[in-house]
Amino acid sequence: MNWHSAFAAEKSAEDLFFQANQAYKGGSYTEAVELYNKLISSGHYSGHFFYNLGNAYFRAGDLGRAILNYKRANLFIPRDADLQFNLSYAGDRTRDAAEELEPPLSFVFFWVDSFNLDELFYAFALANLLFFSILLVRLFIKSEWTYYFIVSFVTLWLITGLSFGAKYYQLETDQRVVVFAEELNVLAGPDQDDTVLFKLHAGTIAERERSEDNWSLIRLADEKRGWVESESIGSVKVQSGLL
Fold first, then answer.
1. Could you tell me the CA-to-CA distances from 49 to 27, 41, 59, 191, 243 in Å, in that order?
2. In Å, how far are 32, 63, 78, 115, 121 from 89, measured between CA atoms?
3. Which stretch of DSSP H or E encloses residue 176?
4. Could you tell me which residues come within 8 angstroms of residue 74 by beta carbon, excluding any fewer than 6 positions away?
5. Looking at the domain that runs over 3-91, which CATH code has it been given?
6. What would the pLDDT profile of 115-151 be if each residue is shown by its tens digit?
7. pTM, two decimal places
8. Taking a C-beta distance cutoff of 8 angstroms, is the pair 70, 176 a contact?
9. What phi, psi does 205 have (nearest 5°)?
10. What CATH fold (topology level) applies to the domain 176-235?
11. 11-45 pLDDT, tens per residue?
């Protein structure tokens, strides 16, 4: 792509974002949803884009997709106060009392949920720079203070490196899904004629264990599990073709 095409694409994205914002401010929430989705589908997404899309879905009365996009936004802007308030507000309106599954390694690396992947990467890169800089200094100045600096920076390097690795693993293995349907039958098998085990409602968060044709086996935090139609849920994980 030459710079003319890149500029045109960026200008088109800015226009879409402006149109979506205007539609939202004007109360045309369905139009805003369509425009934000078009923008994100084109590869232009960020935490604030997902946050705005979540707001538009919420105003349009689609609780499930609102929570889904708030959760996606949380991957990028986990410390945003407005996002946390809206996510909590929307969560209070779900009908199911199911707890959310804890992400992998969250018990050990409890702090990584407060940072996005880029922030942890830059912290690790900075720790690397400091570590190798003090090693270089140590080659010429073999004093006690350089030894203690090396020990400190090795510790910092390990913490930031492991944190980045834990966050990357957490994102790559994220199988959380959000229920779209107002009321969803969870079945004993991947067939409409199978026994209904229990029902879920819009906004409930579960984990997808596996998929089979157009069906997904999901699990809740209380170990309840069953089959649902894949089109009735959406994946929190941000990837190509996520819409």
1. 18, 11, 15, 36, 13
2. 21, 11, 16, 22, 31
3. strand 176-179
4. 47, 83, 87
5. 1.25.40.10
6. 999 999 999 999 999 888 888 887 777 788 777 888 8
7. 0.88
8. no
9. -105, 130
10. SH3 type barrels. (2.30.30)
11. 578 888 899 999 999 999 999 999 999 998 888 88
